[in-house]
Amino acid sequence: MTNNNYAVMVKGIGKRYKIGVAQQRQDTLRDVLVAGARKIGNAFRRDKIAKASVDHIWALRDVSFEVKQGSAIGIIGRNGAGKSTLLKILSRVTEPTEGYGELRGRVGSLLEVGTGFHPELTGRENIFLNGAILGMTRKEISARFDEIVDFSEVEKFIDTPVKRYSSGMYLRLAFAVAAHLEPEILVVDEVLAVGDADFQRKCLGKMGDVAESGRTVLFVSHNMSAILRLTEETIVLDKGRVIKRAPSAEAVDFYLNRGMSKLGERYWEPDEVPANAAPFRPLAIRVVDKDGVTSDSLRSVDPITIEIDYELEQDITGLRVGFYLNSTRGEAIFTSFDTDSEDLFKEFTMRPKGVYTSRCLIPADTLNEGRFVLGVNASSYMVRRYFQDDQALSFSVDASGAPGTHWPEPRPGGVRLPLEWKIQEKG
Description:
The protein is an alpha/beta fold. It has helices at about 30-45, 45-50, 85-90, 125-135, 140-150, 165-180, 195-210, 225-230, 250-255, 340-345; strands at about 5-20, 55-70, 70-75, 100-105, 105-110, 185-190, 215-220, 235-240, 240-245, 265, 280-290, 295-300, 305-310, 315, 320-325, 330-335, 350, 355-360, 370-380, 385-400.
């Protein structure tokens, strides 16, 4: 039965794309003329086009859910699961192929950097334009103008066309506009992808304020800690379909453990690797115990080895390959890269074409009991990120016999270090 107290209702939404067919915009007279010329040219080879088979892919299929007013809902899933497509449909940026959605109230959207701003207009003009689109009066926008500018930290450039802004400046202003013009529904797609740590904290704090004020929030993020902090329920998408909706803690646990190898090893199929990762190609990641056996169940008292196999299709300069170690709730434990050592940094500044294995030894008596998630990163610092998989592999650690386990209570935290203590009696 449908609940009438909803802010968002989605019924059977599907979105289909033609593979290899660009969705073109025609913003200028030149664009229109070029498009017309292409149509004339294509008319001469229409017979060939008609014979060619056209493949389709469903980014979303049969997605249905309701969100009650005042709820904060997370949306998570792997890359390509359909998260951004769903938010674009709800924000009326694109139309669904099938199904429909209904939103009650003004919608403020922050999708990707650039959405909703006119590049030729100044920051000031874009603030008023966005407010007008939301149905606000000039007086209402003016009342919030100073707060928006202060939050965005772009006061010096507020009368500069936004096409001259850096991506960070663009994002700060876009988020400030979306969050401060008081839409009844706030739709945010991975706001933490751009910007420094301080601004990310400001964003999370402001989104928390929005949620507490009784407005509805739809939040897409790969940051599980942010999902757990800001949302009550979370929807998990996979291959364009809703596979779970549950309280956020339960949904996050389901997502982080689903699909990850239970055998301590993960191989990447060619279709799992984005084309823009080249010339880096990940092959496998595994967790190895003290005897050299691949396993997903290890002991805290023994050393643990992480192995990452990869191929370089051409020479790469400045490459670093490493992992993120996180809890299943998304809390960071530590990060390590294969060129953290100065000697290895010098030796492998230029890494020739070939197949490699990077190994990292985690010493005995380091990790606490629990389940951990490994993410993989291959990048050239401040130059390019080749590949990243935040949930590549999971494994468990048994702390039996570790320092302090004669005390029976579980200890919080991801590490259980054998720190040196001294007890001295002062007589």
